[in-house]
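Narrative progress, year one. The postdoctoral researcher (J.K.) led the effort to move from monomer predictions toward full complexes, under supervision of the PI. The following entry was the first complex the group processed end to end, covering 701 residues in total.
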Amino acid sequence: MDWVLIITQLLNGLQLGLLLFLLASGLTLVFGIMDFVNLAHGALYMIGAYFCATLTEFTGSFLLGLLIAVPVTAAAGALLEISIIRRLYSKDHLDHVLATFGLILCFDTAVHFLWGPEGKAIPLPAFLDGRVTILPGIEFPTFRLSIILTGLILAFVLYFIITHTKMGMLIRAGASNRQMVSAHGIDIKSLFTVVFAVGAAMAGFAGMMISPITEASIGMGNEIIIVAFVVIIIGGIGSIKGAFLAAILVGLIDTMGRSFLDTLLKLILSAENAETAAPALSAMAIYILMAAILAVRPQGLFPPKGR
Amino acid sequence: MFKKFLLLASACLMAIGPAVAAEKVKIGFVTTITTPAGVIGKDMVDAVNLAMEDIGGKMAGLDVELIVEDDGFKPAIGKQKTDKLVKQDKVQFVTGFIWSHVLLASQKSALGAGKFLISSNAGPSQMAGKLCHKNFFSTSWQNDQTPMAMGEVLNLNNVKSLYVMAPNYAAGKNMVAGVTRTFKGKIVGKDLTKWGKDAQLDFSAELAKAKASGAEGIFVFYPGKAGGAFIKQYAQAGLQGKIPLYSVFTVDSIALPKLQKANMNGVMGSVMTQFWAPDLDTPQNKKFVSGFKKKYGRYPSFYAAQSYDTIFLIKSAVEAVEGDLSNKDGMRAAMEKANFPSVRGKFSYGNNHFPIQNFYSREVVKDSDGVWTTSVREIVLKNHQDTYAKDCSM
């Protein structure tokens, strides 16, 4: 086996995993604490990307665009929570799904209306656009490496907030037992708004980090939100730690499947069959994993305590 | 005041009058308007609208009505929309179709009802071979032909080993088959990636494999938005200058403005093959490209060129029967002659109603205004007919 290739693919898998974590962390908190199924989480990923693209164009700098776009996306998230989402908490899950699916359509159409159908590219500054040599012989795109680093930093910050601050305590308490928290006189309403806004900012940030690679486009969030749901189900709904580990796991499985499955299948199948079967199988791999985990451990790998 | 009103009213009546009385040429145009691939559909619809303007909205004195439908990038919806055009709108011509899988799903609805079906882009091997039909025509190419030309270019450039990447759907497989058929070297690796509404756009794993394979060239087919994404990641992964890029239907007038905006210099000089380029020297093409640029302020893509041709092909048929739309045999015979001004110049139709035409190598260049575009280099395949024509029983 080629070690250079394996290490590169591990890094690629890690990068995908951290991107998924950024998206899944908000989703798992909103689902876990507010018991709210938010299909429109992917829409926030999309509008984050579009905000960043426009601001990058406007300011001429990706970093500046990113810095402004994150709070703007958080504000958009807060606005969405206060104006619409808040009214839905008391309804059941099916209503959540219907309402947020409607929101997806609204967001997609709004973006189509405001930015047109063609998608937006985000140009990178030169120092992010190159490659770095990580180990002798292993070159890795600088920007993908920066996704890994910022993802790890954010994961750590989130971990710190949740385990070492009062706010985090409330979030953990909320994830374990919502009624008990509000029974203690905590202003659960504003806590929900803050959590939703933070989730929106994280999702938006993920969108901003992927767009220089794939472009911001309509419906970009709808594709990845399914995978984010897989991540939080594997990790255990409401658990940041679970979301982190499951995201990395899913990222690695997906990347490794795409990289090595066809070579492995060629050992047992004809070349032509292996080539057609490999992409289908690697696309299925994470769902198979989810099904297996649901069968053996339906609460997920690391569910929040006290449920 | 009253006088003015009367004048206006009579003017309106006059405008409506003849349209109600006479029969209309109805053309259904199925393309992708929503989803990110909608950018292709927009280019096609723009070209068709331009063509309608250029013919003054009339064919053989009859008014022409264009009905555009969105397939949503899904075969099932494409078929639904085709059914609607045939049964509800009662069109005589069903045209458009970007995607091979959408065309394959929809063809029966149009052909079964005795309508003419004209593909303005998709050219799946099935339609050229076993499923060929007397009422089906193409104003584009059969999928395999363009990559076959690319295989020849690779041989000429002395490329010995090749890494191949394409989306996992009907056309992607045709493209891979095409380049494999003519390329004489060794194919050292191949990836078919997920396609459709939730297509894979991040190619990190595949590019790492290509790099590790040590191939002398990489062949890709990524139409529409995936093309821009691929080129960017190809450069970001550092393959530029190491593994030269040979592409078909990937670097086009849709991807280039965005690549230029993002300053992806790596695409400059990258080689592709195609039946057409904006600077192809034919009278109709000059008229088309300058008209398109004037009206929309950008270069047309090949999708647009084929769509423009579609309208002129129909016009030649309607005029040959002097507007007698019930004379299907007459219209078919006229279309078989390909006797219309095509942007690609004079060509002829094969037995399966796919064009027998030249394929050129093209290169990305800067035009006199500094805008990135593609330019014809040389003829790679002359008067080329697709390989599936022999499976067609017509």
